[in-house]
Amino acid sequence: MRETPRSQGTAGDAEPVLPQPRPGCALAHTTGASGSGSPHRSDGRPPQTPRGARHTDRHGGPGTTPPVPGPPTVHSPSAPRAPFSAPLAPVALITPLALIALLALCTWQVAAHGPLRTYDERLGRAIAGSALPSPVAGFLADLGNTAVAVPVLAVALGWAAWCARRAEEPRWWLPPLAAAVAMAAVPALVVPYKALIDRPGPPGPLAGETGFFPSGHAATAAVAYGAAALLLHPLLRPRLRRPLLAAVAVLNLAVAAGLVRRGYHWPLDTVASWCLSGLLLWTVLRVSRSSHNGP
Q1: 41 phi and psi, to 5 degrees?
Q2: Angle 153-154-157 (CA atoms, 0-180°, nearest 5)?
Q3: Secondary structure of the chain in the HEC alphabet?
Q4: Mean pLDDT by 10 residues, the chain (295 residues)
Q5: Phosphatidic acid phosphatase type 2/haloperoxidase domain spans which residues (predicted)?
Q6: 273, 219 contact by CB (below 8 A)
Q7: Would the pTM of this model clear 0.85, i.e. be above it?
Q8: CA distance 295 to 276
Q9: What's the confidence (pLDDT) of residue 288?
């Protein structure tokens, strides 16, 4: 005997029936689908429990049921940072102190006819008799003339000032002015120094004359080309900055070799000039950095 299915007309007579999947139910769970109020309900009604009302986590990623909250944010006061220039202050003083010490040593040995002066004169005679051709040595020595070095610095001054002015830097004029003052300070320092030490020159075209310590040509080349490199350094691409500084160092070594080879100076004359020039260039560098960093 076949059993007749019971009518489901009223809710009280209905037996509990498990929900059956229906076509199109997946659309109800899709975000933005018609009638979908939340990703957990397909009838558009608000969820019945507080747990079901939760949304995705605070990072915007897809949450779980229940969603896992993100890591708690801990707000801790940041430690005060030391000024940038504070740890660099002792290091920045090493360079000028070392230059002053080396200059004092050379001056003392030359003025007192010490053993370092004896070795210096032997080295000078050996370099003067080296295989470096005299015309090449003369050309290298002439690179320390003011007629050659100062125009190079003037071009660098104009270019650096124009670029800084175009970039609307507040103190665009300060680095070029510092370089110009350093160049003007070369004869003001070298000429009295020569008269004070009054060292005789090496055998050569200027034999018998005095006043060769320190070398004016070496100081002119070091300050002119060095200051030009410092002014152009921030304007160049990073890969060109180190080659520029290396080229300036090699150029000054070449000028010193030409001066000694031609018999214009002893080696210590050029070393003392580099010490004086290094102090001037260190000042230019510090002034340039202060102008870029602001007051």
Answers
A1: -125, 140
A2: 85
A3: CCCCCCCCCCCCCCCCCCCCCCCCHHHHCCCCCCCCCECCECCCCCCCCCHHHCCCCCCCCCCCCCCCCCCCCCCCCCCCCCCCCCCCHHHHHHHHHHHHHHHHHHHHHHHCCCHHHHHHHHHHHHHHCCCCCHHHHHHHHHCCCHHHHHHHHHHHHHHHHHHHHHCCCCCCCHHHHHHHHHHHHHHHHHHHHHHHHCCECCCCCCCCCECCCCCHHHHHHHHHHHHHHHHHHHHCCHHHHHHHHHHHHHHHHHHHHHHHHCCCCCHHHHHHHHHHHHHHHHHHHHHHHHHHHCC
A4: 47 50 46 46 52 49 51 44 42 86 97 96 91 90 96 96 88 92 97 95 83 96 97 92 95 96 95 97 90 60
A5: 180-288
A6: yes
A7: no
A8: 28
A9: 86
Question: Which tokens sit at 259?
Answer: 């001066």
* Confidence (pLDDT) at 48: 55
Spatial contact of 140 and 255, defined as CB atoms under 8 Å apart: yes
Which pLDDT does position 293 carry in this prediction?
62
Cα 239 from Cα 45, distance rounded (Å): 65
Q: Is 271 in contact with 257 (CB distance < 8 Å)? A: no
